[in-house]
Design goal:
Elements lengths: L10 E8 L2 E7 L8 H12 L10 E5 L4 E5 L5 E2 L3 H15 L4 E5 L4 E9 L3 E9 L9 E5 L2 E9 L3 E6 L5 H12 L10 E9 L2 E8 L3 E3 L3 H13 L6 E6 L2 E7 L5 E15 L1 H5 L4
Parallel strand pairs: 2-3, 11-12, 13-15
Antiparallel strand pairs: 1-2, 1-17, 3-4, 4-5, 6-7, 7-8, 8-17, 9-10, 10-11, 12-13, 13-14, 15-16, 16-17
């Protein structure tokens, strides 16, 4: 097996999952300098479910600065990922001995992390996600090939379109997700999409269509964005559980409006990949 401290030879990738939302972690020191097009191609190959290792995305992580770049499986770059942050935190703890509190940096901000529990293969942690934005702060009615929907828009470092009054099912998510992600209202940036059902003052259920990834079993930023919205609308209190196909996340709102999410993440496997095969034919 290659020596971990040397970036020469095969690249090391670690696969993690958080409530069934899986990411590959590639440390920045392991790869040569690639331009954006080359990096996007590598991400698409690695994340492909049948021709690669398979994942909902890839995290390019720099342990020296505790910064991460987040890539969707289609090679596009995302501003933020709640599950991605918890997975990066897990990697920082398992591989680099990170302390009980530290910051992870994404495009928009430093995201404080608090480790709640440690296990041999994983952790539970709470991550600060920032303050949500509601722009516009009103109901929208958007037409899609699968029908017209009533929705609200939320930002939590990345964009979300939250749909009400629809069946919260995998089937309806697959019908509405593609059209809403690429709706002209959101332009080239596109959006993440959630269907929501309020179950109680402290519990909601969502289905998730992620921009650049499709339907996923869980999403930390989606859970946080929807929780922030139902709190903002007065449907729920300041601390709730968000039920997703892959499991539950806890989300709470601090007095100043900052959102925090908590949940598990764990290591799945380590793979060594020949970069010559990935880079062959990429200019």
């Amino acid at each position: 097996m290659p020596v971990r401290t040397s970036p020469a030879g095969p690249w090391r990738l670690d696969k993690y999952q958080a409530l069934g939302n899986d990411y590959l972690v590639l440390e920045r020191s392991w790869i040569p300098t690639l331009n954006q097009s080359q990096l996007s191609s590598v991400v698409r190959q690695l994340c492909h479910r049948h021709l690669g290792l398979g994942a909902d995305g890839l995290l390019l992580f720099d342990p020296s600065s505790m910064a991460l770049r987040i890539f969707n499986p289609d090679g596009s770059e995302a501003e933020k990922s709640g599950n991605g942050l918890r997975i990066a935190a897990c990697h920082a703890v398992l591989e680099h001995g990170a302390p009980s509190t530290f910051d992870l940096r994404t495009q928009d901000r430093a995201n404080p992390v608090r480790i709640l529990a440690r296990r041999p293969r994983g952790i539970d942690c709470e991550v600060e996600m920032g303050r949500p934005t509601f722009d516009p702060d009103r109901w929208l009615h958007l037409g899609t090939p699968a029908g017209r929907v009533r929705c609200r828009l939320v930002g939590i470092g990345n964009p979300h379109c939250v749909v009400f009054d629809q069946p919260v099912s995998a089937e309806r998510c697959l019908e509405l997700g593609p059209g809403l992600e690429r709706h002209r209202r959101f332009g080239a940036a596109r959006t993440n999409v959630q269907l929501v059902e309020v179950l109680a003052r402290d519990r909601i259920r969502i289905e998730i269509w992620e921009r650049g990834a499709g339907r996923t079993l869980a999403s930390g930023s989606s859970a946080t964005a929807v929780a922030a919205l139902v709190m903002h609308l007065g449907y729920c209190g300041d601390e709730i559980r968000v039920l997703m196909p892959g499991g539950e996340l806890g989300v709470r709102r601090e007095e100043a409006g900052t959102m925090l999410q908590s949940g598990p993440s764990e290591h799945v496997f380590t793979a060594w990949v020949d970069p010559d095969q990935l880079l062959a034919g990429i200019s």
